[in-house]
Amino acid sequence: MAIEERNESVRTGGISVETQHIFPIIKKWLYSEKEIFLRELVSNACDAITKLKRLISLGHVRDIEDKFRIDVLLDKDARTITVSDNGIGMTAEELEKYICQIALSGAVEFIRQYEGKEGENASGIIGHFGLGFYSAFMVADTVEIITKSYTDAPAVRWECNSEGEYRFYPSDRTERGTTVILHIVEDESEFLSEYKIRDILDKYCAFMPVEIYFTDVSKKEDTKDQKDGEKKDDEPEKPINDTNPLWLKNPSDCTEEEYKEFYRKVFRDFREPLFYIHINADYPLNFRGIIYFPQLRNEYENLEGQIKLYYNQVFVADNIKEVIPEYMLMLRGVVDCPELPLNVSRSYLQNDAYVKKISAHIVKKVADKLNSLFTTERERYEKLWNDIKLFVEYACIRDKKFLERVKDNLLLPLTDGTFKSMSEYLSDAKEKHPNTIYYATSKTEQAQYISMYNSEGIEVALLDKVLDTSYIQTLEDEKWDGHTIRFVRVDADIAKALKGDGEEYKSEALEKLFKKVSGKDDLKVTFEVLKSDVPAIINLSEQSRRFGDMMKLYSMSSGEQFDVFEEDITLVLNSKSQAIRKLGELAEAAGENFSEEQMTYAKRIYMLALMAQRRLTPDELREFLEDSYKQIEKSLA
Length: 637
Prior knowledge:
By secondary structure, the chain is of the alpha+beta class. It folds into 4 domains: 19-219, Heat Shock Protein 90; 246-386, Ribosomal Protein S5, domain 2 (2-Layer Sandwich), CATH 3.30.230; 410-490, Rossmann fold, CATH 3.40.50; 500-540 and 566-636, Heat shock protein 90, C-terminal domain (Four Helix Bundle (Hemerythrin (Met), subunit A)), CATH 1.20.120. It is 38% helix and 18% strand. The strands form 6 sheets. Strands 5-4-3-6-2-1-7 form a 7-stranded mixed β-sheet. Strands 8-9-12-10-11 form a 5-stranded mixed β-sheet, with helices on both faces. A 3-stranded parallel β-sheet has the order 16-15-19, with helices on one face. A hairpin with a 4-residue loop joins β4 and β5 (166-170). The protein starts with 18 loop residues before the first helix and ends with a helix.
């Protein structure tokens, strides 16, 4: 907001900051990681070359034949790190203007002059804040610049110490470009390691658009003393970076093997990704990237993925949540956004509607890919489902819009090993159990129930993962063809699903007998005519069990302990079973004076019903085995 002069007595001026005050702040607070100094200096060198290329393309400079490059030199003996380029260079006036004045960006001025006021076409120029150079003082006590402008103006040398005191004078440099020399302080000797410098370059500069060459000068000097034949120095130089990364290419020009090789190189994971999504957005958004679905060994494996954010091919950060929704952070990928509104240190994003649009676009692309696989590669989609199921379920739980996009292509794994989409299952179930999906959480523990349902032509879904409890609740909150659906576990609706025809049989004495052998006076006992001949079966309240599951899940995540939740079970006695009818007649005749034999038979039926529904507790199993051995001994006596 402009300040108006209201009368002649008002004085105006600019706020000044003394160097000795701002330098300590820059050194301590500008960047969260000291290693970023090398990214900033290499980025500046890249910008210097990019600017010169742009001037050539605009016709302001004749074409240059020499090859553009950036060199990073490490000299342990001299305790220096040098970053050199053969780019646009600087005149003495430009050096004084852009280097001696903090936060005056040469990049911004260049964009305004040659790309228009709004910088619609910034041509890949990275720097914008005019502060990156000063990151050098986080690790150096003295910094030198030797530079010569492309205009052939006299070269100049500049030296500055960590207090901000500088001097500059003519240089005898003859080649165009800029060299920055850092004299590393004693406390930062870790940056004089070849491994450390290579690691930083690999992390931040692996895909910069100008070839970067790294040399350990000390190591090179050592090789001169070796005998002939011990080492060949005539091997061609290789840049440490890939100037044309895969995400910049047209998807139609990339091969399957290139995508896999890029994945292995960037994420150092030798398991092949399940599939990938190549994003190439031009308008109104401007970003590119490749998203990979990694293989997971099991549901308990570390789910944290790695989305690498780049800014004009310069690495910025991992997993910036503003760009990728939290529920997608288990994926892996690279996203290059040249128009991201970064903060001054390029370490995090400033709030911006543009960022939200990028995030929404990525979510849409992921959903589109899943839909495409379902529609055009159904067989492959089914093979992948068990690997991507956890991600899809979590995404549906967290994002209703994502669920709406993929709902027609959500698969239900069935207990027979096949798959059906939600729509397919509900369509097939219209006649026998409309708007109801029967499921099991264990093929082994609930095998008898599954068999009983299958015998009636009812398919059972297998939802055996921890997340499934929340997932089915999310699906129940959604409308399917205008209807509300419900998920019912196979042990929760047995009397309704498998209700048969025939004469009902009830016995109050038999009900008392089963309450007595169970040790639960409040045990619910009902009589139903079932299609199966099984004597008895346990019916467990769906809502009661879900609540118990949620409490267990909360205990696991919070670390808090809760009392064991008492499940709401019902013992269903099959009126059709001859064993139940015979035992009922004996119980009626005995009144409440049940014989040991009647108690034994009832206990055996009750325990078998429990075993068909769940695993027995240690005490229940011990008691069951003891009773079984006694029966064997009695029969053989």
